[in-house]
Amino acid sequence: MSTTSKKTAPKTPTKAATKAPTKAVSKAPAKTASKAPAKKAAAPSPAAKRSRKPAEPVVEIVAEVQIETPVQPVAEPAAVPATESKKKAPARKRASKPAEAVAEPVAELVIEPASEVAPEPEPEPTPAKRASSARRKKAAEPAAEAPAIEQAEAPVDMSVEAPKKPARKKPGKPKAAEVQPELPAEPPRYSLAPREDDSSVFGDYELLDRETGAMMRLSLMGSLAWRCDCAAHRLQADCEHGEALLSLLPLERVAQLDAGWPAREAEVWLVEQDGQRWLQWVAGQGVPAAVSELARQGLNELLRLPAERAHAWLQAVLDAARAQGLPLRVEPAVWPQLAWARDAQGRVARLEPLLAEPTGLSGLLKEAIPAYQWEAALFAVCAGRAMLADDLGLGQREAALAALRRWQQRFGLERALLIAPAASHAAWRRDLERLLGEAPAGLVLAESVPAQALNGRQRPELLIVDGVDQLDAEQLATLRELSLPHLLLIAAREPLGDERLTAWVDWLDDARRGPLAVLRALAPEAGKRAQREALESVLLSRRKRELQAHQLPAALVQQRWLQPGGAPQAGGPLPQLRALVARWQQLNYLGAEEQRQLLQALSLLPAGSRHVLSAKVEALLALKQEWLEGQGAAAARLLVCAQSETLLDSLAQALKVRKLLVQRLRQGQSPEEQAASLQAWRAEPAAVLLASDAALVAQASGEVLGEARLGLVHADLPWGMGLLQQRLALACGPEPRGVPVAQLLVEGPVDRALLVQQRSGMAFPDWLDQQMPTWLDEPQLAALMPPLQALLSAL
């Protein structure tokens, strides 16, 4: 500090007085500063005026003073004459601007003594002006210490702004931290209810949930052997209540629990975990070694065994316990669970001979069905709860009705509920009449669950759901509430890969026999093959290519019954036909004019109104969407056949109006025109070709029209079955297998009676489906009249 004092010396009293008060007061006590007379100092030299270095020593001195002694409050300076205040103003204008250097010393001057108990409130913005006034008054007072410190002062600009707010804060005594009162610990969520017999840690407990008010009942037989009546434990054989119970037990009780159940008895529980039900073995320490070793065979580390294959195990353990005089208690819920598996095994054993030789089932139905449909029917009966999702055209309604008949005749089923869309009710009734003769007395066909199904006496034993893949979540939940023992679901599309597959299997595996657990255990990226293998006990989903060639018939025929609407034709050809047949029966003779009238009436017998045409157009559009565009398309393109060129022309025109481009193959076309039509049909995906029987026979190439995935549609009903077989051979070759075929039939007496007659084996002459003769000779009349009489009798 002495070295710094020699560098500069004050020259004028005015400048010295302006600089001195700030440092002098910080160095000396306030009492000395207030009584010392003002001294005149010499004016600083030009070199000192240019120097800016004295600012650093000033800061150091302030730091030393602040550390050594606390700053005392500054006494109020004496009044300064006005003349002296006027002299100071020029000095402030000429001073430099070290604003920050001035701010710190000023803040030190206004610090309160450390003995203050509470800090003063934070000053308002106005005290900045009062601080400036105090500095002006201090400037008039003499310095209390040696001029060396005064000479070390840096020039101060008194015109600078007020010090920043943080510098004016008055630190006081640190505020003591508020002591928060300790809150009482929250009571535990669970509490134990008093026990009737608390002599042993083993046994039954009641656990109260304070938050919900629910009371859980637990049975404790070990640290890992306990069960609860809550919903979580029923689904996963585990819940939070067991841990809560153990946490409430005293330590000595927990030690007794770890030591084991000190009893000579055992129990068998039914538990569920990960979608599968298990038998739980719980044994006391006094169980004989022979029984314990036998019981542990086949158990996992949790002493559990899948209930699906535990029937023989439980029987062996019961026999061993009986022989040793060991009390063995079996939970009542175990027996219904084991009955599921035992009944399924019994159904398989009873139907296994029929699975090996399906021809033995032919007498159960009025009409024979293919072997693969019988396989589906027997699969549904053996499983008890199953889903059929075969390829389109494999006949799932036939399989379902065959399963219903098998259930009734072999297992005594009396009541069944069939839920199906309203649009398919007519098809179900026709198949019931065709295969069973009539609907069984205990079968109810409905679109939704009828009220009588909820009645205890009328409650069905079997539920058949057609189009389960068309049900929404609410409809599915309503049907699940029935909780019937037997279930058959029919899906129009392949369920594998569908996001709803787990929900369907959850419904099928209501007894938790294993399929749901295996499905859930699959990896998310598992494919359809893995899903099919996991669900092989409840799902039958076959593609046509998977069936052996000899299993499939030549055509997979679907009958599409049309309801054209409109008023029926008044009269029609029926009265004339009846009169001509009666005349022939009486005379055994018809004249040439009568023969012409007979042939004309026969040609008008099939329905051909505009309503029928409109219904056939709608049927073709639906077939195109289902077979060619739907999921798991049954065919790549369609071939529509009919005898009448007029009918096909009308269909083509109507389809074009509906924005469907079709190709036409008609009689009289040149070979080039036929080739162009066939090429356009084969080139376009999901294309439709309309061809008459005459055009098919007369095509120039003589090649088979169809490909491997051709769908055939009969737009009319011929008089005989021979024409239908001819169309199939011309379209798909001499040995077709599994070709999807649709037959458009008009709801009414004619088509129904003609179809029944064809199935009975009474056929009309082939020449009715070919070029009709102009006249009929005696042999032709003799061949025509018997089937015609039978047809008219059925109408």
What would your notes on this structure say?
This protein is 44% helix and 13% strand. The N terminus is likely disordered.
Distance from first to last alpha carbon: 137 Å
Helix % is 40-55%
- The low-confidence runs, each spanning 5 or more residues with pLDDT under 50, are 1-162
Strand content: 5-15%
- By DSSP, the count of extended strands is 20
Shape: elongated
Question: Biggest β-sheet, characterized?
Answer: 6 strands, parallel
Radius of gyration: 53 Å
Instruction: Give the integer mean of the pLDDT values.
Output: 77
- Strand order, main sheet: write it out: 11-10-12-13-9-14
Structural class: alpha/beta
Number of helices: 32
What topology emerges from the helices and strands here?
Elements: H1 2-5, H2 13-27, H3 30-35, H4 46-50, H5 55-68, H6 82-94, H7 99-109, H8 127-139, H9 147-151, H10 165-168, E1 190-192, E2 203-209, E3 215-220, E4 226-228, H11 231-236, H12 240-248, H13 251-259, E5 266-273, E6 276-283, H14 289-296, E7 304-306, H15 311-324, E8 328-330, H16 334-356, H17 371-383, E9 385-388, H18 396-411, E10 416-419, H19 425-436, E11 443-446, E12 462-466, H20 473-480, E13 486-490, H21 501-508, H22 515-521, H23 528-534, E14 539-540, E15 555-562, H24 574-587, H25 592-604, H26 610-629, E16 637-642, H27 645-657, E17 663-665, H28 671-683, E18 688-692, H29 693-698, E19 710-714, H30 721-732, E20 739-746, H31 749-760, H32 778-794
